[in-house]
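Researcher: Can you fold this with zinc ion in place?
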Amino acid sequence: MSSLPPGAYRPPADRWGSFTKLASRLPEGSVAVVDRTVARFHPTLIPALEARSPRAIIQLVGGERAKSMASLEKVLAGGLNLPRSGTLVAVGGGTVGDVATVAAHLLKRGVRLVQVPTTLLAAVDSSLGGKGAVDLTVRGRVVKNPAGVFHYADETWLCPELYATLSDAQVREGSIEAWKMVASLDAGLFKRYVRTPPALEKLVKDARGLKEGICAKDPYEHQGLRRVLNFGHTFGHVLESLSRFKLSHGDAVGLGILWALDVGRHLGITPEPVAHEVERALTRGPGVLGRDHAAELSRRESLKDVAALLDADKKAGAKGELRMVLLTAVGTAEVVDVMPKTWRALWPAWTRGARP
Ligand SMILES: NC(=O)c1ccc[n+]([C@@H]2O[C@H](COP(=O)([O-])OP(=O)(O)OC[C@H]3O[C@@H](n4cnc5c(N)ncnc54)[C@H](O)[C@@H]3O)[C@@H](O)[C@H]2O)c1
Ligand SMILES: [Zn+2]
């Protein structure tokens, strides 16, 4: 155990192994927050926790609704008797991990957190970097992540047997986020991936290493260095909204990367061969959906509505310019202000599913 206060930045301590084995590390009298679906799919999970005499096991239904004030309150109530030296362990995808992170930050002004990401997206992205948040419902509309904290995990347990119950679509979603980091941060690794697509465990290890490399330099997001992790997210978020969230976040980001490559090419920032190579690799590797999916979603939208979505996403500046992450080379990204006329010029081709 580290001597830093609970939740302070520390380099991640990743432990790989089966959940049953790693659970024996859990101090007795801890509190567990568990995704109910994961518990149902993996019947040895709850008994392994119970063997450590926990103070409480709180089960939440995973999914965006788990990030509510109501489930935060449920977790806080379950953790009421946890001493300040106690541990909260979160077993689930990004939603359970995010709400448990907030709870770990609040309980006794901060307790030790152990993250057990059970989705690939959580393993490569959300369980790393210290962020947790809950959503708020304001005038009937869900606002994502307005109430959040930084609270770094003390340990992260990566249990490959838990990923076996993920659907192909869930694996694709996490893989796209992982390849996003490789394509924008590590040219050598990208080359190796193109030659031989990585096994899942290697993908997780590499992506975590890359994300940590960025977070270590800017653990509390004071310097904007973490912005590069948003590659593909500007138009990814737009497509996610246009689909009314039927398109998964990872699939939307994959298509958002294709459009970011187009923007980069159009501005002369991303060389044509780089854009071509990354698009081909992402299609063959993690399986980014075809441009026709993005066309289907964007065809009937007015440019005005799209501009409003970009604005609401706080990615746009005063003159409507977008702070976009663009590739200057494979493995190198830059944050660039993109004027509305640039993406507006590409829009007709995008709505036809064509590469502009
Ligand atoms: N904190 C961060 O830095 C950060 C980064 C990225 C995303 N996020 C957040 O993460 C959330 C998305 O995470 P997610 O995609 O993991 O979503 P999720 O937690 O909703 O999980 C997706 C679905 O998979 C199920 N599931 C979980 N593990 C499973 C398993 N092993 N087998 C079968 N089913 C399983 C869940 O019950 C849920 O229905 C969003 O709320 C997003 O805002 C946070
Ligand atoms: Zn993302």
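Model: Folded with zinc ion in place. DSSP finds 15 helices and ten strands in the chain.
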